[in-house]
């Protein structure tokens, strides 16, 4: 058996980093270790034979001294005592001690001495309180937030969600926990959602934001804007994904209604042009032609002067007829609806070259026939008309190249000239405010049916106008409700 000598015990006692003291049966401090002396700044002589609650240490408050006195009282009765002491030292942060007092009795049960122990739990307590407050704040945000919050596992399973998300989709939390995020995603949006989620989980990006359609428990479609972020554990490894989901269905409906309104206005303008063209054709034009026939019959008059005057009137009427027909063609090209964009541009170009020596038109046109909807044909033809009018008014070009390209997805129209060109504004509203509404209107026309219009120009370098429209129009109401798409 190893024999423990006094010096060894002294070294061991002083090496303990916790605050240790030995009290006699009356609660007087017999010995304190080095940690206690360092904390209090007192010596063994200062502490000797002093009751624990009467230690000459100013940092002990009255409340602490009462606690220590009660602890000694209960320990002297053979009870193990434990409590917390808040130590406030000058110019130092508050310290929280986990204090305990353990009675030691002999074989007859008589109290021999007591062991006082103190552990500094300040950091632990502060951390626990901060964690509790953080959890409380998160719980409040999670439960009371008006924005949906959803927590997903790395496998896509729904781990938890807040009441706002449940209300948005009409599911209970228990029902959602049985589903994956793709189960409540509209089929047409699943590919994009899967790609973004996998990139997030594989740490190719830290977060993402996207608009997507959700399926409610009743099968309805709801638009949401989700911002998803990857949450890492203490070891730096991914643990789960948290998503903030804003219900933007009302906004999407408003956007859809605005686009529909613009489309209806554009269609209304075209119908108005058609009616004007028909009215001109069926009314004034027919009357002019009738008068021309009557004049032709009167030319048989024997008077040479009358015949010359009638001939002059007939030529004027023929010129007027040509002008009215030209106006009708501008309002509603007669070949556009039955024969397609290619034939309409060819017909217009023929008339254009007959009345304009310059610029020279070079055409490269795909055959479309009835491949494009009437609306797409009208938009492309109006862009062609407006661009050609701008070339005549401003470009001073010698040649204009018109190219029409058609594939299964897009119809592309390019009008390029070798004219003066111009400096593109940073904002197109500047063009509109200057009264140059033609190109701005063309851009709006293309955008209204899901297409785009790009303009490239520079002073002295000519201009290129390129319009790209979808072959099959994707009406916004279809995108909103999901109707008409293959499930």
Q: Can you walk through the features of this model?
A:
The structure is a single chain. This protein is α+β, with helices and mostly antiparallel strands and 487 residues long. The protein has 4 domains: 6-125, PAS domain (Beta-Lactamase), CATH 3.30.450.20; 145-247, PAS domain (Beta-Lactamase, 2-Layer Sandwich); 251-332; 336-487, 2-Layer Sandwich (Heat Shock Protein 90), CATH 3.30.565.10. Helix content is 46%, strand content 24%. It has 16 helices and 16 strands. Strands 3-2-1-6-5-4 form a 6-stranded antiparallel β-sheet, sandwiched between helices. The protein has a 5-stranded antiparallel β-sheet with strand order 8-7-11-10-9, with helices on both faces. α9 (249-298) runs antiparallel to α10 and α13 (374-395) runs antiparallel to α15 (437-448). It is rod-shaped and about 160 Å long. Residues 474-487 have low confidence and may be disordered.
